[in-house]
Write a structure and sequence with these properties.
6-stranded parallel beta sheet; 10 helices
Length: 277
């Protein structure tokens, strides 16, 4: 490169051919992993994924200094990692990589990894952080044919915080869909998350939540049990109900029809956590 070329590159405004050339390796790396990568949308999703061992081959931001300030206050443990990982790109480039740019101006792609499966069921379970912070005998959360990706992500976040053994979904919704990962704030990497049909659920005691069941407060929770919750509109499927060892119900005021799915999971997990103490 001549001195004249160097000067032109230094003074070129964002969006010119010079800046586009500078980000070509980044966009090429993004394209290489886009098909199989998990989109981490925003600073907090990237922060959580890195803390729980996710492999992140590419991460971009529109403002490295602003992200560094965020990390200094919210994730000082990741300052060095983020310094080495993040690549600054123009806003137009970020908009071309993701459907909707996050307000923090951060996006990344992570690689799914396999954790040990349950009971030798045969398929790997994504989540390199599996087991970290999980107590002996922790329950598995099962979402039976969920229909709302935001709820799936919220349940993953709850399971990670409570130290559950994992989250399984049945039905056709992908629990690793970008909308679910966004709602889970990157905590899909803190707890195993996978999809299985009812016939391939682990061989563990299954407590299914249903308004006609016994009050949860009166039911023992076997170590390692699965806690199953029906879909937001239709409840448990016939297949899951037939597989259940026990139907249990959350305490609820008369004439109130239901709780939100994530709220129901939170109540059940808190019940388990309270018994530990």
């Amino acid at each position: 490169m001549t001195r004249k070329d160097e000067q032109a590159e230094r003074t070129a405004p964002a969006g010119t051919a010079a800046s586009e050339k500078a980000v070509e390796p980044v966009t090429a790396e993004w394209a290489r992993h886009a098909a199989d990568g998990v989109l981490l949308d925003g600073f907090h999703a990237l922060k959580h994924a890195l803390r729980f061992g996710a492999r992140v081959p590419v991460a971009v931001t529109t403002d490295r200094l602003a992200v560094r300030e965020l990390a200094r206050s919210l994730a000082p443990d990741l300052l060095d990692v983020l310094d080495g990982l993040l690549r600054e790109v123009p806003e137009a480039t970020l908009r071309g990589l993701v459907p909707r740019a996050h307000p923090t101006g951060v996006a990344a792609l992570a690689l799914r990894s396999s954790a040990p499966d349950w009971d030798g069921a045969g398929d790997g379970v994504p989540g390199p952080g599996a087991g970290a912070g999980t107590q002996e005998g922790a329950p598995l959360v099962v979402l039976d044919n969920p229909r709302n990706l935001g709820n799936v992500g919220a349940v993953v976040r709850l399971a990670a915080g409570a130290g559950a053994a994992g989250v399984l979904t049945t039905g056709d919704l992908d629990p690793w869909h970008p909308a679910a990962v966004r709602a889970g704030a990157g905590l899909h990497f803190a707890v195993p998350v996978a999809r299985r049909q009812v016939g391939r659920l682990p061989r563990r005691p299954l407590l299914a939540f249903d308004p006609e069941g016994d009050d949860l407060r009166s039911v023992p929770l076997p170590p390692g049990a699965m806690l199953a919750f029906g879909s937001e509109r239709h409840g448990l499927t016939d297949a899951l109900r037939a597989r259940a060892d026990h139907l249990v119900a959350l305490p609820m005021r008369p004439q109130v029809s239901s709780y939100n799915l994530a709220t129901s999971v939170a109540m059940a997990l808190y019940h388990w956590m309270a018994r530990l103490s």
